[in-house]
Every structure is written in C-alpha cells, then in structure tokens.
Amino acid sequence: MSAIEAKNPARGRPRSETKRKKILEAAVDLFLANGYEGASVEDIAAAAGVSRQTVYSHFGSKEDLFGLAVSSRCKKSGVDPDRIDYSQPPEVMLPEIARRFATLLLGEDAKRVNAICTSCADTHPELGQLFFEHGPCQAKQAVADYLASQAQRGRLAITNPGFAAWQLLCMLKGEAQLRVQFNCEPLPADAIDAYIDDCVAMFIRAYTPAAV
Amino acid sequence: MSAIEAKNPARGRPRSETKRKKILEAAVDLFLANGYEGASVEDIAAAAGVSRQTVYSHFGSKEDLFGLAVSSRCKKSGVDPDRIDYSQPPEVMLPEIARRFATLLLGEDAKRVNAICTSCADTHPELGQLFFEHGPCQAKQAVADYLASQAQRGRLAITNPGFAAWQLLCMLKGEAQLRVQFNCEPLPADAIDAYIDDCVAMFIRAYTPAAV
DNA sequence: TATATTCTGGACTCATCAGTCCAGTCATTC
DNA sequence: GAATGACTGGACTGATGAGTCCAGAATATA
C-alpha cells in the first residue's frame, strides 16, 4: 500500500538499481518455482541477499512484486517472429516452426508459467491476460503472418490465416503437452516427433491448393 | 496421519455414511472453487454441516480428503462414448462431436478442474494423472474409435486414429479455450462456432480418401 | 441397561507469513 | 562534515489455518 516513490530522489542515498534487479530476479525464480503462496517475501529477500524491509521499500507489497515479476518474465520469453523465413515454402518452413514450437511448449518453463497463470487466475486476472498476449497470441500472429504470405504466393489455399495458425499450433500440443501439464509419464521422443510430423503433413494436405 | 478404520465396526455408533457424503460433496465444491490452500477444513466442515473433528475422523487429513474429492469428481465428469453413432458419416458426426466437446471444454467446471490439477501438480502429482486419464484420454479414445470405424468403411483415409483424434480435439481448443484458461475476454459465440466448423472441415479435407 | 463409539463445539497448541516499527549503519549529495 | 535517505536486522502485531484434546451428548449394539 505504501507509496514507492522516493521522497526526494535527488538527495540522500539513491535506491540501488542492482538490488532492485536482484529482488526481481529472485522473485521470478521463486514465484515460478513455488507459486504465489509458496514463495514468501522472506525467502525472496534472502535469495536476493537483501532485507525484507528493502523489498517493501522497492516494491510496496507482495502483490505488486508478483505482478512485476511475472510480467517481466513473460516479456522476454515470447516466440520471436524474426526466425521465420518467408521465402521458404511450407514443406520446409512448417516442420521447422513446428519443432521449435514443440520444444518451447514441452519445456519446464512453459509448464511453470502456465501453472502460475492458471492457478492465480482468480486473484490476479491480469496476469493470465498478460501471458496470453505475450505468449500464445504472439506465436499465433507470427505463424498467421507466414501462412498469409504463403497463401498470397499461391502455395497454400488459406482464406483465414488466423484460424489456420491456431489450428496448427493447438494441434501440435497434442498428448505430449497435456502429459507435461498434468505431470504424467512423458511420451518418448520419437513418438513426439512422429506426431509432429504427422500434424504438419496433415495440415499441409488440408491447405494444399487444388491442382491446376 | 491417523488411522481411519473404526476400532470395532460392529459395536457402538457407526460412522454416518450420509455425513461422509456431505463432507465429500462440500470438499469437491470448495476445492474446485477455491483451490487446495483456499479451502480450509473449517469451511468444508461448515458447508457439510459437521464439526471439524468429524472431518478428521472420516478422512484423516486434509490431503487425503483432497485426493478423494478430486478423484470422485473426475470419475463422474468424463465424456461418454455412448453418444457416438458409428453409423453416421464424418460429415454428420464430427460436427456433432466437435460441438459437444467445445461446450465441455469452455465450461466453468473444466476450467476449474484444469486449474486445480495444474496448480497442485507438484504437491499431488497423482491428481494430474488421474484427471488426464478420466478426462482428455477418455475423450480421445472415444473419438479414435469412431475414426477407426470410419476408416474401415473407407470413409476416411486414416492410418493412425490415435494421432488423428488428438489432432482434432487439440485443434478444437483453439483460442477460445486459451482465453478461458487465462481469464481473458471470451470470444463471441459466433466466432467460436465459425472456428469449430472450420476445424471440422479442415480435418475432413485432410483425411478424405483420394477420389477413386 | 451397560458399553462402545461417533459427533459436537469450543478451547488449545503450533507454525507460518504479511506487513510494520525502530535504532543503528551506510552511502550520497550539498 | 552535516543532512538525507537507503539499508539492515531483529522484534513485534495480527491473522489464519492445521491438527489435537476433551467433556458431554447422541446413537448404536449386546
């Protein structure tokens, strides 16, 4: 609840930016690892090598800190659209995209961010939204752009690239991602690869332009 | 930690089965609504119209109660394969299945079970597994069976019905389910319907047998 | 009726954790 | 070197919640 602004920033000892970063880092780690309830301010302060009071001085409250932590995390873990080569045809580019996406999806980090955002949906509705936009939505947009470009070149018969992008990405999740999400025995790697290949092939088949 | 067995079940006042059920019901409701941490034993006892001690007498500990509650819930909320008509062709049956699945998926209950199982993944790994088997896995199997039957009749060109079933079901989740999961503004109903129709059409296109 | 057991409800312990307060120390600016 | 504000660490408050204990009431069997 406290106002976080410095009383007179020009005078006295300035707040340490290093400490601020340390705290935020520690918060990201601990919140992701243990969830909101599971990570105490004391733990975070200790992990950052800082007193509890300093945490409050920098961030005001646990809630505020939580918001900033998750937000900072989401912003840096998106799928970068830069690595999509628009000149490559779908048969080359889609398997590549699919594999990258699957790797991201099945990692420990995605699982945790997912868990946090899901479980805190009620207490922190804005977090889910934040993650949705910086995560899935961004990935979808990148794919949709690529698909649209291919459609324009006549390589794919897609009228609604947005739909098609969601279809591809959601499809890729498959059994493997559910198993990760719900802590089940993971699928063997070759089964995952086979599934992904099958998805891409199926997708291309559905959207291949009619032969001339 | 306490042993829950009655000391001498034949003698004395027997444990009330009614109370047991009431407690379990209340536990399901409150755990689903508030999560594991959010639902206190006191709340549950109160909701069941019973003393806290009775809860402990019946279930031993909060953890045990939690496990039984989620387990009982999962068992009764599966997708029933009975309502699939194997004689109907894909063009008729798949849109029907897709709609039913989407309704289930976007409901409040699915969201909550999902949230609980996801957030308790670390403390209660067996719960996720339980849900996975009684939920998604069962639905997938029903669809896979139907697809296999259609493949056998030559109506679909599917060699791996399991893959195809996961593809269809995962694809259907789409943007709408992500929005539900992450507490975002829901999509308008007509957009959801359009997406579902598009998915089914796309699926059938990909698996239509080559013309003779 | 005697006995065994459940159920109640309230009091109790124990632990955890968010957030505050404060006195003393440290770094920075004027 | 004086004023100012950040930082520390420990003590403190207040709240919450799991699990236990107990005395008395209720309910079943023998």
The proportion of residues forming helix of chain A, as a percent range, comes to over 70%
Low-pLDDT sequence parts of chain A = none
- Overall outline of chain A: elongated
Gyration radius of chain A, to the nearest Å? 22 Å
Summing up helix and strand content along with how strands pair, one would put the structural category of chain A as: mainly alpha
Keywords summarizing the entry:
homodimer, 212 residues, mainly alpha, 9 helices, 0% strand, elongated, DNA-binding
Notes on the protein architecture:
2 copies of one chain form a homodimer. Chain A has 212 residues and is mainly alpha-helical. Chain A contains 9 helices and no strands. Chain A has helices at residues 17-38, 41-48, 52-59, 62-76, 90-106, 108-119, 125-152, 161-181, 189-207. The first copy, chain A, is elongated. The mean pLDDT of chain A is 88. Chain B binds a DNA duplex (30 and 30 nucleotides) through helix 3.
Short summary of the structure?
2 copies of one chain form a homodimer. Chain A is mostly helical and 212 residues long.
Give the arrangement of secondary structure elements.
Two copies of one chain form a homodimer.
Chain A: H1 17-38, H2 41-48, H3 52-59, H4 62-76, H5 90-106, H6 108-119, H7 125-152, H8 161-181, H9 189-207
Helix pairs in contact in A: 1-2, 1-4, 1-6, 4-7, 5-8, 5-9, 6-7, 7-8, 8-9
Chain B binds a DNA duplex (30 and 30 nucleotides) through residues 1-2, 6-8, 10-16, 19, 37, 40-42, 50-54, 56-57, 61-62.
